[in-house]
Design goal:
Largest sheet: 3 strands, antiparallel
Structural class: alpha+beta
Order of helices and strands: HHHEEEHHEEEEEE
Strand content: 15-25%
Amino acid sequence: MATDTALTPGESPDMVSDPRRRDFLNIAAVAFPAVGGGVAVLYPLINQMSPSADVLAQSTTEVDLSKIQPGQGVITTFRKQPLFVRNLTPKEIAEADAVPVSSLRDPETLEQRTKEGHKNWLITLGVCTHLGCIPLGINEGDNRGKFGGYFCPCHGSQYDTAARIRQGPAPKNLAVPPYKFTSPTTVLVG
């Protein structure tokens, strides 16, 4: 039984006898532009989630340490959050070292929270790990709690001189952001 199917230009008799191949070619011809159009629509949506130039500019903070005397601290900003930079005294360092690490809720030594050779410079985010309040203790005259570090007035969390949680509802120590010393008196945070 012969078929009287007319061939279109570019078709061979083999293509006419295999309808699955023709169906695949038709589906592929329609799907390829649809996938390309989908990518063209999704790219701007995904690209807009990238940080803008002003956010990237705030991704690092440089701090001049030359004017911070032992026992003093300053507040600056890092990624729109308060950043505490404190020059610890030898007494504050000794107090932090005297605390048994096994007694801490979030066990870390002062050495783990500072850079080698710069044990006196404690750099932490000034955000309580309980509900995000700003603890007191960086400025002179602030309530530093009974452990001499920081005191959160919102719910009573108390941190020691190494900014480690010692009492109250906060679950973790004040966070130490990534930083490096670019000179003996300059630190780059971020």
